[in-house]
Amino acid sequence: MQRESSTGPVSDPAPVGEADRVSKSFGETRALVDVSLEVRPGECHGLVGRNGAGKSTLVSLLTGLSRPDSGSIRLAGQPAPGLADRGAWLERAACVYQRSMVVPPLTVAENVFLNRPTSGNSSTVNWRAMRVHAHELMLEWGFDVDVDQEAARLTVEQRQVVEIARALSIGARLLILDEPTASLEKAAVERLFERVKRLREGGVGVLYISHHLEEIYEICDRVSVLRDGELVLSGRVRDVAQEHLVAAMIGAAPPRRATEIEAVRKTGVLGDTRLQVEHLSVPSRAGSVVDVSLSVRGGECVGLVGLEGSGSSTVADAIVGLVKARSGTVAINGKPPSPGRVDAAFKRGAGYVPQDRHARGFAPQLGVAENLTLAVFDRFARRLGSVSFGQRDTIAKGLVEKLQIVAQSLAQPVSSLSGGNQQKVVVGRALAPDPSVLVAVNPTVGVDVASKEALLDALGGARDHGVAVLLVSDDFEDLRICTRLIVMVRGKIAAQFDRPPWDRQRLISAVEGLDVAV
Amino acid sequence: MAESTVERPQATARPMARRGFRVLVLNFFRELTLVPVIIVLMIAGAIVNPVFFTSSNLINVAEGGSALGMVVVAETLILLTGKFDISLQGTFGLAALLGAWLIAPKASEGLGVEFNPWVGLLVVVLVGLVVGTFNGLLVIKANFNAFIFTLAMSILLTGLQLGWLGGQTVYALPQVFIYIGSESWVGIPVSVWITVATFAAAALFLRYHRVGRAMYAIGGNLEAARAAGIQVDRIRIGVFMTASVLAAVGGLMQAGRVTAVTAGQGSNLIFGVFAAAVIGGVSLDGGRGRMIGALTGVILLSLVTNILTLSNISSTWIDAVDGAIILIALGLAKLIGTERA
Hints:
Chain A is α/β, with parallel strands linked by helices. Chain A has helices at 55-62, 86-90, 108-112, 127-140, 156-170, 186-201, 213-219, 242-250, 312-319, 342-347, 357-361, 368-372, 377-380, 389-403, 419-431, 449-464, 504-511, and strands at 17-26, 29-39, 44-48, 70-75, 78-79, 93-96, 174-178, 205-209, 222-227, 230-236, 273-282, 289-297, 301-305, 327-332, 350-353, 437-441, 468-472, 484-489, 492-497.
């Protein structure tokens, strides 16, 4: 491989970031084996792979958080600086992680200039210069964020912008975006793509990590696939068929096609109405709900589809009593639980898979078994409340098998599991009490393809056993287990789809708030 | 699909500068939510006892609050970086005691060698440095839980202070040693000047120095601060050291004011310190709060103590009333301000 110096001609510029046959092991685990990958200026390079394929390890090598056991990293044509020289790394490469690296109490301008001189080399802070520079930077890259705002008030999308702006202003020309669309709504994703385009025009090389293959096809020039620490595929996006990409990620098993929304055949007879929501109105910052009525019968899976902020997840929160409704009623199995009381909803037979698994989904330091059975203590509690661990583990084992949870032992802390397995624990916990109504909000967000299959199979299985499932999601792939869809736009029900298969085009139009004749 | 709403550069630099100014003014007032409470207290004070509004009483309030104020500055610095230090009260007592012991005559419970008083002052600062370094290293580097570790340190330091002299009081201290706690410049006690200057210096440092801003970043999001290349450990240990030295100087003020060091100096001080910082808007989670707010917290607590003393409330009830008023102030601060307490 020949290489130009960093000041080489524009026609063949040095890659902004390059891994040359890098390997990295953690103890017994070989996280990366002989992986080579380069990101050229002005290029968007997609990196895909299931959870645990080695993507994070590669990112940590490219951003100087760890050192390869063998092989080398080059940035902008130069050998990588030493690990201790954080400043030098930040000037060359930056990663915008899923976990926000913004400091909430500081202003946007301060976040952009975090730990950097604001004028000259002085260690005093020149507030005026800092704000003006931050503002200019935002204008230069076409970002629209008020630099005087406190970062705590920013949306997820704006925080991402702040992190990108910070990286660019330090001088980084290798920008790694780690699952940037995971918590963005559709319109924000479009804006992100515009931004990525602009970055590429500015000569930035983007390494784009995503589970959403359609995104890779939309904005990436090249794509590389990691599987079990090895680079199994690398090439121009337009030369790689989607089937091949999925096959490379998964390995042997034939993949389901991701673009098509396969729908279930309607299963037999439906049961009684288990969940009844009438004229529900909820004010909420996460998306208000205006006069929503819906019902779900046993054996039915109703998909509640809407963008972030459309109120779809607020409906779910109101059903289980996490937020209080202003008006309207919720009835679970015919009776209303006292509003605002989560435990009451659970007692009436509701199970809940919350949206934010890190905040509400599990107790990270507790073991797998303990998390799975949090909601069913009374089932294995003996007299006086002492706990039968044997019984607990039996219940947990059943769930582990059902959901194919990969853990070293039932006692392994959930925090040390991969994202997909964490989500399986959350779903397993909701299923443990055998709920008659199951409310799940984005249950497959941010998990790999195989975990997604397992999760959807589990939810579909619950439906087949007569559970009334309300699935809140804007991931169209989730919707294939649904028997009916309700689309929400700006707090109201905008459309209903009663019969699978779903027409993808019309569904997207409805979700985006365009008129559809139903 | 809807029209893409890609941002277009519209705003120019000038309206932004104005908006920035407004934000600044707004922030400033948000820090002063305790001012109405303080005004109400002053009116109450005037009603309770006409002596309240005499200059000698108000100076007395300021003097009484100055030692507390030093420790509040210290604790606020640590709280901003997301840690605690309960042992500041131990340092407040022990540093002053060791300094005094070295220079006081045998007759007044000193060592008897009667070192130069400047040695005593140096020892006060040194004790602060040593304790702060020790706390900082073990909490930050060895990753001990700050709460329980500094609680243990506090018990240890207070115990040393009590045991060292068998519960006696060191008195008859040389003028140099008690200067900052007993002298006045232009009618205002030196300790008040020093405390106000310390508040001002700390406020300016936090706002206009890179390390000051880095402290907010550390308390606001430790991982982000680390990723930005901020030397988070060095700064946090430095903050522990600075805070302990400030607490030691506070102890020196207290000693000068009563011209002695008692075996109980500093006991229970820390609760008032936390109360003042928190009602002043300093977050216990780190990253939020400002010196001006902490200062209003100190003023409020000092006024409460003074008014209770001036009123005819039986002294055994003072603590209960004190606690109730702190609770009310907390409630008010939460009502008026945003994200407090």
